[in-house]
Structure formats: C-alpha cells, structure tokens
Amino acid sequence: MLKYLVKRFFITIPTLILILLLTFILARSLPGDPITVMYGELQPPPEVREALERELGLDKPIIIQFLLHIYRMMRGDWGRSIHTGIPTFELIKEAFISTLILTMTSILIASSLGLLLSYLSITHYNTRADKVIRVFSIATFSFPVFWWGFILILVFSVYLRLLPAGGKGGIEHLVLPSITLATVNLGMITRVSRAALLEVLMQDHVILAKAKGLDTKAIMLKHVIRNALITIITIIGLRFGVLLGGAVITETVFAYPGMGKVIIDSIFSRDYPILIGGVFVASLAIMVVNIIVDLVYALLDPRVKVGG
Amino acid sequence: MKGCKIGIYGRSIKKHLFITKPSWIAGGLSILIPVAYLVLLILVAILADYISPHHYAAGNPSIRLSPPSPRNWLGTDHLGRDVLSRLIYGTRPLIYVVVTVLSIAIPIGVLIGIVTGYFGGVVDLVVSRTIDMFMVFPTILIALFIVAILGPGLDKVIIAIAITEIPIFARLTRALILIEKEHVYIEAAKALGAGSREMLIRHILPNITGPLLVQATFSASSAILWEAALSFLGLGVQPPTPSWGLMMYEVRRYFRTQPYLMIWPGLAIFTTVFMLNTLGEKLRDLLDPRLKHGLRHI
Questions:
Q1: Closest in A15, A198, A219 to B133, CB measured
Q2: Which of A25-29, A39-43, B227-231 has the highest average model confidence (pLDDT)?
Q3: Which residue, of A62, A91, B127, B234, has the greatest Cβ tally within 10 A?
Q4: From the list A127, A154, A241, which residue is nearest B135 (CB)?
Q5: What SS3 class is residue B177?
Q6: Taking the model in full, what pTM does it have?
C-alpha cells in the first residue's frame, strides 16, 4: 500500500508540472496584463509601466519567469496578489477550505439521498415508484445550476425569509448553496447507483446468498450495497472536476467566497500568482481525490490489489 | 445466458430478463414527446419572424418590468422588451450552439478515437495520456480560459464548449472500437482481405453509431447548459441578441421583485434539456448494444 502511494506520488509530480506550465501559458495568453487592469482607462506613461514591470518581474524572458515561479512555489513562496498584496497561499487556503466544505456537504447529501432513492427504485422495480424516481433523476440533472440556485433563493430567502441568500458565515449560509449543488448531482448519482445495484443483483454470489437462504435485507446490506458503493465512489471521483465546476457557478450565485470566485476574479484582473496558484490547487485536489478513490476501491473490493 | 439467472427480486426482474429487444412501442411516448418538442423548437426558430408578437430588441421604457398582460403575455424585461418574443428568438442561438458544437466535436473526437483505438501504438499512448490530463482540469476552467483569451461572444463560447466535448467523443469512440475489435466478424472480415479503410467504414463505424448518437444527445443537452452558464457569467451571446442564458444574466438584479423574468428562460432551458436527456436515455435503451442483453437494457 505504501509502495503504491509513493509510486502514485511520483507519477503525480510531472503531471502537476505540466499543468502548471499549461496554466502559465494560458495565463500569459490572456490579452492585456495586470498593469493594464490596474490603471483602467488612464494608462500610465511608459517609464512608470517599465518600473512596475521590473517590480513585478514581468520584464524577464517568459521561460525564466516560469522556472523562477516553479522554483519559488517549491520553496513555499507562492507570491502575493498583484492587486491586493495578500499572500497567494493564505488567500487560496481560505477559499479552498470554503469550497471543500461546500463540495463535501453536497456530495454527502447527494450520495446518501441517491443511494436511498436507487434502493427504493430497485425494491419497487418497474413499478410506478421506480418510474417516478427515474424521471425525477433525469429532471435533476437537467436543471441549469444557477437558475436552480435563484429559485431556491426566491423561495427560501425572499418569500419565506428562512435562510440568507448568500455570503459566508454560519451553517445557515451553507444550506442553500449545498442544496443547489446536491440537487444537480443527485440525479446522476441515483442513476448510476441504480444501474450498479441492478447489475450486482444479477451476479452469481447474490443468487448463491439467496439460495443459502439468507434474508433479503442481509443480502442487500452485505453484498449489494457494498458493491454499489464502489460504483458510486468511482463516479464521484471521476466527476470531481465536474463537481468543482458546478461549485464555481453555485459560488457565483450565492456570493460564496470559494475557489470559483477567486479563480474567476483572478482571470479577469490578470492576477497571475493567484490564478496559477488557484488552478494548481484545484488540479491537485482532483488528483488527490483520484488517489483516494483508488484506495477506497481497494478497501471495498478485495479483488482489487493496489500493490503492482 | 443472462436470462437464466434469477435475482433476489426474482419475479419482477425475471419477467424483464427475457425482453432482449425492447419494442419501439414500449418506449413510444417517451420518444414521441421529446421528438415532437424538438421539432416544435426548430419550427419556432425558423418561423420566429412570423409568430413572435414583437421584435426581440424593440424596447419600450414606459412599460418596463411590467407583469404579464394581454399585450405582453409573459411581461416585459428591464428595458421594456417583450419576454415572450425574446424567448422565441432565443431558440435561434440555442439551435446554432447545439449544431455547431456537435459538428465540431463529433468529427474531431471520433477521428481521434479511431486513430487511438484502431491503430493503437505510441500515438494511442501519448494521445490517451494527454486526454486523461485534460480531463483532470475542471471543464469550466478550460471554458473560462478560452473565453477570457478569445474574448466574449457566442462563437468563442462554442469553441470553448466544443473543446471540452472532444475528449468525451474521443474516449467513447476509442472504447467502442476496442470492444468491437474483439468480435469474430472483424476476424472474418480480415480473413476476407478487408483493408483498414474498408474495415472502419463498412464494419466498425456502422456498429458504433448507436452509442455515439446517444452521447450526441447528452452532449447537446450539456452544450445548452454550458452556453447558459457562460452567458450567465456574461461571457456568451452579446446583447441585444436574446439567448436564454443571457436573458437571465441581464435580469439577475431584478429577480427579487420580478421573479418571472428569471423563471421563464430557466424553465425553457430546463424543459429543453429534460426532453433531450429523456430522449437520450430512451435511445440508450434501444441503441446501445452493450446494454441490449437482459437486465442491462434498463
């Protein structure tokens, strides 16, 4: 297990460097630069601009800038925001924790509800309840995320005045964003786990368990759900990038100060250190999730060995 | 023989095990309704000039933000423009986005899939790894970057969405070809002296169009959602062209007092995507050969 982790870790490094390079190139391909954004309508005289470029290190050849940036990041110096001077690492850390809380809460809601719905769907296979659940799950992944967020705000904070419409604070600020994000993922999870449950139900070991005279509930718990969990975890892992994408839009709707807001703002203000750091952390998170999924996979499914 | 197995919910499932070919009649309504809806949508887009009560850009500030009335069935927006007319004209960018995204993403994706899946080798390794890395990147970041570099506008949004859809088609085609290559008929065709081109065009491609069509349906719905999301961030269609996403972006400040301005376009997007997804699910049941056997036709 440890050997595998070390190996995965070393495979991750070149990918991360490639992603850094890609982000760097993309960031620099954005038209204009931080100085243009800083001054807006009144562009500074050339000598001021030159001084600023020297101060920000933008005057050096681009490849040197890239190598210098990687070198500094490895030493733990992620730079400061060009516009606000806040250390990149601090800013991203805070935003990342907010996004993580939001994403994890909604995954928890969506997967537990999804598992429940798919279970009901199977036990009522091909009845009206099954059909309703199937239509419902197609419906939930047809929602435009931001629109659904607005509808929830309208109902719960404008009409019922129960919950805040946005911002950050206690748990009450987390409720609407996580419901929004959970809803759009619920359908996908229900669908996938329903298919997984059906497939497991048809396998020999389940039939054997039934033949041995085991109680249906015990079979469901010990054999079927355990196997279906593997599929659900895999799909969550595979779609973690999509989840983060949904989080970006949800954060915009609810003015929730997470990674989405930080990255979008940094793209528009050409704040290179923040942008590169933000994309780096997002990609790193997705990779870590992939590794965790592999490990959980091995834990739940004894047939999978993670040694080789 | 999957049909011989009996699950623990034996009876109800067993009944369905023997349906290996679901009939078109069984799925009748859930195919008919979405198809009818999509045809209607296309007709509305074509006939927009004749059926819309007002011009989409004709504003009348004296009746701005007015509720539904006999003159404006769905009310007016913040510039006094008729919401219904804008919804009707909004079908045009919608169909344009879907058609262009698919006609960029499918040929390129399928081509990449064929090269990597059928020919394999070093190219396969390099391209597949690149696609894997690409998929680690959150889709929205790719789209945001592309739009930020190229500047806002419908064509740029289309390029951004198409680029995110290409790896999906490439991966699917590759997987399908890898499955198809194992079949005996390929062996037979090879023995009969079929070249690569004949093999691909006459034997493999016809057998994988079903799943590709299913994916195209789902990609169409995700293209609509992406266009809406990017327009909602102010990066998509530029005013005064009405797109459903842009309509919501423009009125987001008034939605507390005039919620219907937000509700109608969102409902239109939801209905369209829902219809496409329903159609996709049903087509998957009918066309995907991997799901044709026994239970998996669900």
A1: A15
A2: B227-231
A3: A91
A4: A241
A5: helix
A6: 0.82
Residue of A nearest to B1 (CA): A202
Residue B146: HSE in the Cβ half-sphere, 13 Å Cα cutoff: 20
Element (H, E) at B181: helix B154-181
Retrieve residue B17's tokens: 């095990």
Q: At residue B178, what is the residue type?
A: L
What's the pLDDT tens digit per position in A165-174? 776 777 778 8
Residue A207 contacts B, CB cutoff 8 Å: yes
Q: Which of A120, A123, A146, A249 to mutate to test the interface with B (most CBs of B within 10 A)?
A: A146
| Residue found under tokens 């034996």 | B10
Distance (Å, whole) CA B222 – CA B200: 29
Yes or no, beta carbons of A125 and B277 under 8 Å apart: no
B230: left (phi over 0), alpha (psi -120 to 50) or beta: alpha
